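agent> step 3/5: call structure_predict on target 'Sec1 family protein' (Cystoisospora suis).
agent> reason: downstream docking stage needs a structural representation; sequence fetched in step 2, passing through unchanged.
tool.input:
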Amino acid sequence: PLHDRSKKRLIVFILGGITHAEMRSAYEVSKDLHADVFLGGSCILTPPEIIKLLRASLVSLSKKEKEEDEEEEEEEPA
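tool.output (status=ok):
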């Protein structure tokens, strides 16, 4: 409505995706601030997708740490 033009607006875009919990938090913030909150994201992440991403990150981190350890071993004098 026209009388809502003075209402504050907040635009949030989350790279990498947004969760349902984040959407709920934005709703609560919009109520507390008496503002319109517009959300966007690369995708909406479900709990199984979050777990899959976390597992992939852990595997990637483990590989990186292993490679760094191997490089340190090669650099040590015999």
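agent> step 4/5: record observation. The mean pLDDT is 86.
agent> proceeding.
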